[in-house]
Every structure is written in C-alpha cells, then in structure tokens.
Amino acid sequence: MNSQTKMSLNATSVILIHLVVWSYLGMFSVIHGTLSDILCLRSVKESIEDPLNNLTSSWNFDNQTEGFPCKFSGVDCWHFDESKVLALNLSNMGLRGKFPMGIQFCSSLVSLNLSNNAFSGTIPSNISKLIPYLTILDLSHNKFSGEVPSSFSNCSYLNVLRLNHNQIVGNLPVELGLLSRITSFSVARNMLTGQVPGFITAKFKPESYANNARLCGTLELEFLLSISQHNSNNLCTNIQVGTLSLLVPKKKKKKRGKKFVIVFLQ
C-alpha cells in the first residue's frame, strides 16, 4: 500500500470518527432535551393543585413510548415523535397553586397559558431566566399578587403579555417599554398605581390599563413634557379616559394645542 493510499484512508477514518462523534452528541442533545422536558412536566404537575383532575387523568408518566408527553392535555410539542415542549395551554382547568417554577426545564417553550385558573402568589422576579424564549405569556384571570417584575424587559421575544384580572399592585416598571416585539399587552383590573410605561414600538388602548387603583399616564410623550411644570399627580387622580384639548401658552398668544389621549384608570 503506497503512502498516498494510506493518507487517503487516514483522512477517511478521521471524517468517520467526526461523524460518529457529532451523531452521538446530537443524540445526547435530543435525549437530554427530552429528559429535561419530561422533568419540567412532572414538576409542573407535582407543584400545583388539580381539583378537577384535568392533569391527573391525562398526564400519565408511566407510558414511556416515544413522544408520549405530546399526547398530554394542554401540551404541544415541536415534533410529534419527540418530547420537546413547544407550548403549554393549561387555561380554564381549575388549577391552583403558585407559579410553577419547574417550567424552567421546558427549555424550548415559546408559549405559556395559565389563564382562567386560581393561581396565586407573586410572579417570579427572575421570570426572564425561567422562560427566556417565550413569545406568549397569559397569566390573566387568576389571583397573582405582588408587583410586575422588571425582568420582563429581558424577555425580548415576547409578543403577547396578559396580566389582566389579577391582584397585582405597585407601579408598572418603565423597563416594560423596552419590549420591542410586543403587540398585545393588558394589565387591566388589577391594583396598579403610577404612570403607564411608554413602549418603543407599540401603543395600546386605554382598555389595556382599565380598572386599576391609581394608574395614569398619557399616550403622547409630548403631552407629558408639556405638563411637567405642573403637578401631574393631580392629573393621575382626576383625569378620566378621554380626549383633552389643552391651551398651550405661546410667547405672543395662546393657541389651542393638539388633542391628546389621556389614560386614567381607577
């Protein structure tokens, strides 16, 4: 066997070794992801109360066939023959308990819907680390309390954030305005106070903020600047949703200014 043939065989062997290693690593990644997602679902089931047995009757972990969690009620997977969870829709199942921290093990999750249940307690302050790739989060119509975490601003893929109909208090973090992909947002019917955040890429109707204790603000930055020399807190407690025509003082004459939409919700 000449030297050229030996070199060719050696090169082929190296390529084959690399292919085997890459295949093994890819398989390990899939297995690891699958085990992680199964752990996620187990943890979610064990951490919440299920008085109507919606999960108990469906989430059977004794079945170990390929992709078995994808048949669970409320679970959607990326592929039917894997166990990598794409979305969890647990809406209107009569569930109770705290926010399920085990959700962090569903590493490929992009949609989480816990609406119309009886979840309580605070929204985790590290929410962005638990569900970093989420595009849809619906926690509406529950009993969540505490404040809105500022770390929501790090959930950079969020398109939909619904926190309405809860018992959330405090100010809305101004950092929420950094959510550049947000298209749907609601915090209506809570106990929020202070200014409405200004989103950099979207504007939301007053209904998104309705029925809060002392939540106020404006949909126009120009208006905020024009009243900065006055007591804006009075505006927060007295002005209702509507359109206001301001008299803006000029150097030589007074001129009726533009109409601005004022948000005051109580």
From TrEMBL:
GO terms for cellular component: membrane. Keywords: Leucine-rich repeat, Membrane, Repeat, Transmembrane, Transmembrane helix. The chain crosses the membrane at residues 12-35. This is Probably inactive leucine-rich repeat receptor-like protein kinase At5g48380. It comes from Ziziphus jujuba (Chinese jujube). It holds the Pfam family LRRNT_2. InterPro entries: At_inactive_RLKs, Leu-rich_rpt, LRR_dom_sf, LRR_N_plant-typ. PANTHER family: OS01G0607900 PROTEIN, OS05G0588300 PROTEIN. Residues 36-78 form the Leucine-rich repeat-containing N-terminal plant-type domain. Coiled coil: none annotated.
